[in-house]
Amino acid sequence: MSEFQLPYKALPHSEFEAVKDKLSQVARSIGQSASVESVFFKVPFEEVPDLVASRRVFLSKGYAYVAMSQVVSLVVTQFRCNISKALVLTNRKWTATIKEQEKDRLTPIVEALSNAYFGPDYSQPNDATEISPKDIDQLARTSFPLCMRHMLEKLRENHHLKHGGRMQFGLFLKGAGLKLEDALTFWRSEFSQKVGSERFDKEYAYSIRHNYGKEGKRTD
Question: Which residues form the DNA primase large subunit C-terminal domain (predicted)?
Fold first, then answer.
């Protein structure tokens, strides 16, 4: 770690012995050998969100105990942090000096990048990723990010989500491949348990159809 100037130190032997049983339990829970690695790093849990989300680390008092075999997550976190800092500094220098000097050559290209989108194109149908309502619970357990899994749990619990939650979760399901008719079936099955089918059709179905470009400006 010191060779690459990473701010992490190995867990002292005394502290390792104190949590060894907990580390062994985590190893068994993710299908690894019960024999625990001897080198661990104690880091703030927010620095390894991928390991926390997949429950692959022991957590205690806001810290995650990261094994040497998992250290790539720490490296990735530091890399992203360094890139973010470098981009901020570059932006300041760009705004202060370079932007005006390169107004005819680089400026139009750089400013266009801020409006570019390089993610998946959800405006076009993709049959390969089509899902149905019966797939949602299984996909939530295996593939959903934690925030979306939490929304589904709240929806199942309360049979309702506020407008912002419905928009966010609804568009997420659309991007995952849920068709309009299936989306209406899914939302109706939950909301009707609290507000009834008639009220759902009057007050909530419109926004779902709107998400799919069937209402309003009809833009998918």
Answer: 137-219
